[in-house]
Amino acid sequence: MVRFVPTICPYCGAGCGILLVAGNGAVVDTRPWSEHPVSEGKLCIKGYNAHEFIYHPDRLKTPLIREGDSFNEIGWEQAIKLVAGKLSETRDRNGPDSLAFMSSSKCTNEDSYLLQKFARVVIGTNNIDQCARLCHMSTVVGLGAAFGSGAMTNSIADIEEAGCVFIIGSDTMSQHPLVARRIVKARENGARIILADPRRIQVSRFADMHLRHKPGTDVALLNGMMKYILERGLEDRDFISRRTEGFEALEQALADLSLDEVEKITGVPKGEIEAAAQLYAEAEASCIIYAMGITQHTTGTDNVLSLANLAMLTGNIGRPGCGVNPLRGHNNVQGACDVGALAEFLPGYQAVADEQKRKAVAQAWGVAELPASPGFTAVEMMNAAVEGRVKAMYIMGENPMVSDPDIGHVEQALNALDFLVVQDIFLTETARLADIVLPASSWAERDGTFTGTDRRVQRLRQAAEPLGQSRPDWAIICELAGEMKAGDSFAFSSTAQIFDEMKKVTPQYAGMSFARLEQPAGLQWPCPREDHPGTSILHVEQFTRGKGKFHPVVYRAAAENPDKEFPFILTTGRIMSQWHSRSMTGRSPTLNAESPEGYVEINPDDARKLGVADRAMVEVRSRRGTVQTRARVTDRVAAGVVFMPFHFAEAAANRLTNAALDPVAKIPEFKVCAVALKTVK
What we know:
The chain folds into four domains: 46 residues, N-terminal domain of TfIIb (Single Sheet), CATH 2.20.25.90; 265 residues, 3-Layer(aba) Sandwich (Rossmann fold); 175 residues, Dimethylsulfoxide Reductase, domain 2; 112 residues, Barwin-like endoglucanases (Beta Barrel). It has 23 helices and 30 strands. Helices cover 31% and strands 19% of the residues.
């Protein structure tokens, strides 16, 4: 008998609905879910093939223990006892902060919630983080400071109502195809499209304007647009006076700015900056869409604050078709942040340093106290491991040996640990370095919740039994906590029970329940009461923080820029048919056939000067490492700029990237580093 099980796609943060086709005890196909409000019966190539990796022969089916350079199978009881013993020993000998935990945006809310609770309650450390630190922590910090909430302000469907869509730092057609569909529909409805991106991408084909600024010059570009808006009196003075504070400081900071200087910094002609500003400011409703092209910089927080400034300056907040809309790259990066898998925040973005909030959560969890100092973030964990301050690490569902910057340093860090546990569905590049590997079940073999990029909390439904001896992540954590004498604090028998506890300490989820989430649309937070319908648009009457706050931002150059030895700017990104570190898409025959290997894009003028032919093997070198890959000679990149997708371990762009951090969000600078190229003889 064939069953159609409604669930949520495991790839990008759009949160598309899919139907898993289950028969004879296995998932055999994926179909679109026509009633789903985000995808409306449509899927991208990844969604249509979401089932293909589930039964790949590489799936982990039993716990593994390292024996020399290889692994041997062990039973669950032995594995749990070994992990519990090593974690306890490390904590007792070196203190709780000698351990670090990494959750995953691929896991459910319930999984991430329990791992951060385990770190704080069982171990006693705030050293818990996840890949949001590497993609959208600038959003959490920047929009939080400006608006009081670090999340997408509007809904995906709402994009269709825009009169102008300003896309910056987002290759939307490749990264979020079903969101791009809404942009296309907005254009069909008469919207004007402005694209700001260093590369010529698919959106360039139908954009009214394409501002090709130099990587790392976003603040200068946005300040230039705001300068022109103020010069022409296009700002919304009524909105500014009623709804915001700090405008005078912004006005003063922009007073002496020269658009000629902005042109020199960005490489965008002054006239194009002025025309883009006019389009954005004069539309009835203007929507900003951005992604990691904005956030992954040492100036990532500044970039996000500048976007918030632009939206408030023109009154484009709190209405349909408006807003500042970050697109999350992972299926549950929004949720993993919401439920507290962050070094400085408890669930609901409650600061660990806030004594009152900390005591309230401790009381709800039935413990006397929780650690008060913010923990190590993702990159800081690696630094601390190299320095000997972190002795043991527990990594759930992440693959930093592909996804983190400066992979050589990551490898050094993981090898320096006394003990490494990796919990995953495949033996990833990171898992190969572990002492113990714990087999998790795939997303199709469990239930729980994901939270999409537009704050939409949705049900995940189990379509098949876990493969082999694999187990859901939450169940593994509960068993480990029980072995470490955590008492009833982790005595959960279902994800519904975990959700019921989670919502009590996550104010944004307070009015939700599994029963309410049965509807195809889920619920968008904040949903403070059981009779609340959820919130499709934030900041309608007032900002979460009361008044929106302008933050004057001055342009700062990237941490590393080209020089004689390294004359090119490397920027990185995603491609449509692959995802993250390819642990899943790389094991999907259909998706892998589309893009089986890495590459570097190089401008034809640069290729001629270097003698690089299309498809030739080249060496790309930075101050941190060297990779070899094939060249793609294309005018998609400007002269002096090269681009690499980061998915491919065999040609790992992140062996080259810079681990320099944004001083506020602690996000690394993936999008700008200096490299040299040469042909491989």
